[in-house]
Amino acid sequence: NTDTPLPPDEPMGQNPPDGAVIDYWLASPAQNVTLEVLDGKGKLVRKNSSDDKVEPPKDIGNWPWYWIRPARALPRDSGMHRFVWDLHYPPIPEKKPRFPIAAVPHDTAPDYTSPWVTPGTYSVKLTVDGRAYTQPLVIKMDPRVKTSAESLQQQLSLSMTIYEDMKRVGAALEEFGAMEEKARSAKEAKDIAGEEPEEEGPRRTEGPDTLTSLATSLRTLFEALQSADVAPTTQMVDAVKDRHKAAELIVGRWQAYRKKR
């Protein structure tokens, strides 16, 4: 019920709830609480827990800490609680997330790094100290959108391909960075990963893909795919095939190099 007042432990800024509002009530304090969203086939879409690690907001690049919406674990104390699912798959962890310039103090969520779910029937599973409770949840498309269900599913399928590639390339970049810090000389690793030392001046736009350039192109393509509820163009489909092939190649090279270490 979106008209239910927010409990004190779930403050919200000037923004209205930007997703599915899920309320739950605990008769007594719990040791562990999990909230899972499952699709129509019972596949896990999103999971949150009272054990989730959260950190207080801090300055990130040009974004001051007071812009950022604090992360919160699921409450486990007794009483009424509210959780807002943003209708997305799990976000990709980022050291430097991006935030929109249209900020609300203390309530600005980072830009999405995961796809929107498609309209359909889902279920919400609340587990409290091992005891599970399940309720249905129906996600409906904005009636102004006339895009077919098939086109929306195609959009999701392509977005999920890029989403998984973004995760793999991001993980490879994390490993590369850690290796670069520890190695006396990172020249061999840079050759394998296709990385080059950062230089002053414009970003290189031509030449073979590197982990960094591929991560950027994947993110740009993902944002284009998710920018509107429309059928993907043939150019989009071709671009996904191209970037996926590039991700397979460069991640494969990186994994082969790691096995030799």
Strand content: 15-25%
Shape: globular
Query: Could you give a short account of the major beta sheet?
Result: 4 strands, antiparallel
| Helix and strand element order | EEEEEEHHHH
| Tally of DSSP helical segments | 4
Unreliable stretches covering 5 or more consecutive residues: 1-16, 196-205
How many β-strands, per DSSP?
Answer: 6
Question: What is the residue-averaged pLDDT?
Answer: 86
Span between N and C termini?
Answer: 55 Å
**Strand numbers in spatial order across the main sheet:** 3-2-5-6
Describe this structure in a few short sentences.
The protein is 32% helix and 17% strand. With 261 residues, the protein is an alpha+beta fold.
What does this structure look like?
By secondary structure, the chain is α+β, with helices and mostly antiparallel strands. 32% of the residues lie in helices and 17% in strands. The protein contains 4 helices and 6 strands, in the order E-E-E-E-E-E-H-H-H-H. It has helices spanning 149-182, 187-193, 211-225, 234-260; strands spanning 20-26, 33-38, 44-49, 79-85, 120-128, 131-139. A 4-stranded antiparallel β-sheet has the order 3-2-5-6, with no helix packed on it. Strands 1-4 form a two-stranded antiparallel ribbon. A hairpin with a 5-residue loop joins strand 2 and strand 3 (44-49). Helix 1 packs antiparallel against helix 3. The chain starts with 19 loop residues before the first strand and ends with a helix. Mean pLDDT is 86; it is low at 1-16 and 196-205.
